[in-house]
Amino acid sequence: MVQPTPPSSDALHRRGLMFIMSSPSGAGKTTISRMLLEADPAIRLSVSATTRPMRPGEVDGKDYHFVTQGRFDEMVENEEFLEWAHVFGNSYGTPKAQVKAGLREGQDFLFDIDWQGTQQLYQKLETDVVRVFLLPPSIDELRRRLTGRGTDSAEVIAARMERARAEISHWDGYDYVVVNDDIDECFAKVREILHAERMKRARQTGLIGFVRELMRP
Ligand SMILES: Nc1ncnc2c1ncn2[C@@H]1O[C@H](COP(=O)(O)OP(=O)(O)OP(=O)(O)O)[C@@H](O)[C@H]1O
Ligand SMILES: Nc1nc2c(ncn2[C@@H]2O[C@H](COP(=O)(O)O)[C@@H](O)[C@H]2O)c(=O)[nH]1
């Protein structure tokens, strides 16, 4: 009797997922995202377009696609975004092209986006979406992190701190909430979430044939 062969790689047998990380500004989602991208070559960053000025150390096309407001508006007009929002006085959006085709091919994507974008993606692609919200251990520590990052002016930091409580109020729109106190612990938890979500039965559509074979009398 021919034995059914177990699928060798889950990436070949499921649709990609959209792993979203949000938090108040400065809580650490960019840091955790970078760690995840380095540790896990199977997930790719969805590179957003933004009208905000580039920070020192950022690379156009890698961290963001830095565009003018005119170009951004044109992209909105041409329906080139999966979602977009105004955040802290700038425009940010997720270009459709890279993500849609990738998901079909089983590519997982990481999104560093705010709660408005998360809601839009969830409304459009609910079953593909995993929503993770990071909290800072305290408001004082959040301020320390924003200041210590050294990338923003005092005005920008004040504006982001001003919005922090409002951002945190959206925590209940997420599937998972993790406090980013110790960075390594937080990263380990985020990785566990990603691993478990990849294993969900509903995502492993490629297993159906294998299970049918196993159950054949
Ligand atoms: N667990 C942690 N302990 C101490 N410092 C941290 C921790 N996590 C991140 N940081 C530091 O806090 C600062 C802000 O982190 P990061 O830029 O990742 O935040 P963010 O949530 O992506 O902010 P934004 O939304 O503004 O992009 C960085 O200098 C980072 O090195
Ligand atoms: N809705 C979206 N929000 C986004 C996107 N890209 C980033 N962001 C969020 O904006 C703030 C500020 O980011 P920063 O890099 O200027 O500090 C932060 O909350 C990001 O998560 C996007 O494409 N759509």
Automatic annotation (TrEMBL):
Entries under InterPro entries matching the protein: GK/Ca_channel_bsu, Guanylate_kin-like_dom, Guanylate_kinase, Guanylate_kinase_CS, P-loop_NTPase
According to the UniProt entry, its GO molecular function terms are: ATP binding; GMP kinase activity
Where in or outside the cell it occurs: the entry states: Cytoplasm
Q: Which CDD domains match?
A: GMPK
What is the enzyme's main class?
Answer: transferase
Name one cellular component (GO) term: cytosol
Question: Would the keyword ATP-binding turn up in this protein's UniProt record?
Answer: yes
Q: Which Gene3D superfamilies match?
A: Guanylate Kinase phosphate binding domain, P-loop containing nucleotide triphosphate hydrolases
Q: This protein's superkingdom?
A: Bacteria
Name the positions where ATP binds.
23-30
- Alphabetically list the UniProt keywords: ATP-binding, Cytoplasm, Kinase, Nucleotide-binding, Transferase
The catalytic activity of this protein is classed by the Enzyme Commission as: 2.7.4.8
* Record field: catalytic activity: GMP + ATP = GDP + ADP
Stored Pfam families? Guanylate_kin
Residue ranges of every copy of the Guanylate kinase-like domain listed in the record: 16-195
Q: Belongs to which family?
A: Belongs to the guanylate kinase family.
Q: What does this protein do?
A: Essential for recycling GMP and indirectly, cGMP.
What protein is this chain from? Guanylate kinase
Native source species: Novosphingobium fuchskuhlense
